[in-house]
Design goal:
Blueprint: H1 4-12, H2 15-26, H3 34-41, H4 45-57, E1 61-64, E2 71-74, H5 81-90, H6 96-104, E3 108-114, E4 128-133, H7 137-151, E5 157-161, H8 162-171, H9 174-180, E6 185-189
Parallel strand pairs: 4-5
Antiparallel strand pairs: 1-2, 3-4, 3-6
Helix pairs in contact: 1-2, 2-4
């Protein structure tokens, strides 16, 4: 099965271009230096320079400053920005199984609840609620950073130990209510969250 990212790679010519386009489109109010783009996309500086040049030629992005202070930002008057944003948003689809597998390598996963970006519901408080035990926080952080580089924007997520989740459920914690009482998708569940 071809994923949304693979479709975009074929459509736009490279994974690097798609990552950079997503970074700018999903972060319209931000300015990016080459260094920040390298950190956020995990691409090389040479890949970034090549793609930035092409994206500037079609006027999708603009720049300000010079040399090391040069920054790029989305051109909000680009004629095709709205349909392009729509296309990028709908192609974010990440396999739930893949997410469960990646997150599951960082802890003893008990439940994974997806919202926000993953279900195209931008009003959500978080994109992911991760519930489990024995978290390897460094490994989880690296996994999230990798996901963010693929998606093109920072993810908002909450991490709870199983005991803490049960306690919060019992007292009607607002964060838990805001996640579970509004649109969400349970990708993995060993706690009866559904």
């Amino acid at each position: 099965m071809i994923t949304g990212m693979e479709t975009l790679e074929k459509l736009f010519g490279s994974a690097a271009k798609v990552k950079i386009m997503r970074l700018f489109i999903f972060n319209p109010d931000q300015f990016f230096t080459t260094k920040i783009i390298v950190q956020r996309t995990r691409l090389t500086a040479s890949q970034i320079r090549k793609e930035i040049t092409l994206l500037q030629k079609i006027k999708l992005i603009k720049s300000k400053g010079t040399g090391a202070r040069k920054m790029w930002y989305i051109n909000d008057t680009f004629a095709h920005l709205s349909p392009l944003r729509e296309l990028m948003t709908h192609s974010v689809a990440v396999s739930f199984d893949s997410l469960v597998k990646k997150i599951g390598k960082t802890c003893k996963l008990k439940a994974l609840v997806l919202s926000g970006l993953f279900i195209n519901h931008p009003e959500s408080r978080v994109d992911m609620l991760i519930i489990g035990n024995q978290f390897n926080r460094d490994s989880l952080s690296r996994t999230i950073k990798k996901l963010e580089s693929e998606i093109g924007r920072e993810l908002s997520y909450a991490v709870l130990e199983t005991e803490d989740f049960h306690y919060r459920m019992g007292i009607g914690d607002r964060l838990i209510r805001d996640i579970l009482e509004f649109p969400h998708q349970v990708a993995f569940d060993r706690l009866g969250v559904k």
